[in-house]
Amino acid sequence: MDTQAVKGGGYRTLVDDSPLSGLQWAVFVLCFLIMFLDGLDTVLIGFLAPYIGAEWQLPKGALTPAFTAGVVGLMIAGCAAGILADRIGRRPLLLAAVAVFGLANLATAWCGSLEALVALRFVTGLGLGAAMPCAVTLVSEYAPARRRALVITSMYCGYTLGGAAVGWLTPIVTQQHGWRAMFVVGAVLPLALLPWLFWRLPESIGFLAERRRDRGAVAALLSRIAGRQVEPPALPDRPAVEANPLAIFLSPAYRLRTGLLWLANGAGLLMTFTLINWLPSFLTFKGVPAATASLSGASLQAGGAAGALLIGWLMDRFGSRKVVVGTYLGAAIAALLWIAVLDRGSAVLLLMGFAAGVLVMGGQTGFQVLATSVYPVAARATGLSWMQSVGRLGGILGIQLAGMGVASDVDPVTLLQALALPALVAAIAAGSLHVGFRPAPPEAAAVKGG
Asked: Boundaries of each Major facilitator superfamily (MFS) profile domain copy (predicted)?
């Protein structure tokens, strides 16, 4: 096989210009499966809460600490994992994260008290919080620019489909084997995936090129992408002083963008975590049967998957910012419509859950794609993980406010309608992202923000 140089001298040129290779498909599929398991294990406690509360005879709102502990774990791990991923690589952290949340779920299946459940959900959150930013970054660095939005949103479908799978499986598994069996499912699947990840998942080509500066490893990966032997490419110039990733995304050039990313993501996650943790309980409090409430939660997740694909397709054609803002505005309208559907039967509830998933979770997925265009490779994993971690404060706030509302006997419909406010905040922050900023470096601007 002839050895050929990379046209233009840069590794991104070949990644962007080549057809999708088997290596890239392997990265996308494995990260899709990681996101599927991340989604499954993140929402598991929300679907099982009615069953756990009934068996342990807990009062309304008693499981709020378990919901919150998982999100706190997500937040802490996200901050630490991003910094580590930008220093030691995406792959080793992904492997460790999957092992952590798999083993934590296995232990949860045998927990016997609320205190143990809270502690184990925190540990589970640590693994889940490390996995998502590493998977998103890895996929974004192997995806060609022309299809990056669709590839990333398709990967995010794994997260929402994992959540939907919980909704579909919960009534079946719990009826036959009890709620603990669902935690066994949430443990066996990631632990079974680990050997495949170890065997097939490569390190990020962007990390190898721009952080580790391993020309031989980059050339080997490019050869697999191109289907021919490729000479070691020219690498981007190393800065005179190696920048700290934190210093990059908090620098004057990125500071305002970073604040808007955190605000929009926090508002979006407030909506998302409130719905995925509380929607089944809200519906049961209104007299909806537990099985129907669980299926409504599954419809929410299925709508998120469908919305991610639709929004990714729209973003590649019309620009990420316009589409994301439009979906957040749609989510605000949908929040106000819950009052009109609760007494219309199970079919209407399932349809409403699906629509909320398209707009809330689909919009949130689209926002993650928009966020990948903001930071350069040297700070991308750190910037995205800090965005996720700080944004999860919004998720914690939503869970806590919902729990306080439930404990105070606030009508669950009122709590659902209140989600219109964070939807409007997210729309304004996302719409302001590309107003009056210095442009990001060309490498980081692959997703158009029009």
From this structure: 27-438
pTM: predicted TM-score of the whole model, two decimal places? 0.74
Q: Would you say the C-alpha torsion 130, 196, 373, 149 has a positive or negative sign?
A: negative
Rg (CA), the chain: 21
| 103 Cβ neighbours under 8 A, 6+ residues apart | 187, 191
Residue written as token pair 């909806």: 288
pLDDT-derived band at 240 (thresholds 50, 70, 90) equals very low
Confirm if 143 and 151 have CB atoms less than 8 A apart.
Answer: yes
Statement: residue 206 has pLDDT above 50: yes
At 324-337, the pLDDT tens digits run 999 999 999 999 99
What DSSP state is assigned to residue 3?
Answer: E
Could you say which DSSP state residue 360 is in? I
Alpha carbon 365 to its chain centroid, in Å, reads 7
Domain ranges of the chain: 3-444
439 pLDDT above the threshold of 50: no
Instruction: Please name the CATH architecture into which domain 3-444 falls.
Output: Up-down Bundle (1.20)
The two three-digit tokens of residue 76, written as one number: 């802490």
CA distance 90 to 136: 10
Distance CA(270)–CA(422), nearest Å, equals: 7
Are 100 and 120 spatial neighbours (Cβ–Cβ below 8 Å)? Answer: no
In Å, the largest CA–CA distance within the chain is 73
- Cβ–Cβ < 8 Å for 301, 158: no
Q: Is the pLDDT of residue 448 over 70?
A: no
Residues near 297 by beta carbon (within 8 Å), at least 6 away in sequence? 43, 46, 47, 163, 166, 167, 276, 279, 280, 353
Write out pLDDT tens, residues 169-186. 888 898 899 999 999 999
Residue 171: the pLDDT is 85
Element (H, E) at 369: helix 362-372
* φ and ψ at residue 211, rounded to 5 degrees: -110, -50
Q: Is 2 helix (H, G, I), strand (E, B) or coil?
A: coil
pLDDT in tens, 381-390: 678 778 877 8
Name the helix (H) or strand (E) containing 229: strand 229-230
| Eight-class DSSP state of 62 | T
